[in-house]
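re the bet — no i am not wrong, look at it urself. input seq straight from the record:
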Amino acid sequence: MSETAASTEGHRAASWGPGTLWPAAQIALGVGAVVVGLTNRDPLGLILTGLLALLVVPAGVMQLMRRPRIEVVDGQLAIKKLGGVVFVPPAQVVEARALGVARWGARQHLMRLEYVDDRGREQLDVFTRGDLGTDPREVMERLVGLGFGGTRAPGSAGPGSAGPGSAGPHTGGPGETSA
């Protein structure tokens, strides 16, 4: 990708976040559990359905409040967290990597995003398909294409400083040199 294409593409907004269907279903499940607990008139049932509602309703509300989770606007990466939005310029993104994790015989893909915040501390965020609303590998490829990611030190040369294969898994040792 040419430098001019990357700069013009960086000003367009791209966003990734969960859909509204699953969080709305969580909230409806919590409210429905409380209604069932109240109509059943069983004290233990009311406690159990109330605990279920205390777990799923806030989870659904938090997912709706943090939409979109990641957004690229005006050349900066906006990451929505519970405490607010963190804006990260491309030069502060240390690494964007797609990870594959096998759990209980099923393969789950994650996106690992490492960046330096405005106070100079390194931050690590891991996003799942549920966080992004799509395959994390596609989001990682798009972010790297927009100039966010690769494996470069913070503050190094711009988006073209990392090679095209640098966002993949690292297999070398600590004393490795590249040719």
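see?? The chain is about 35% helix and 25% strand. told u. also The CA atoms of residues 30 and 52 lie 6 Å apart. so pay up
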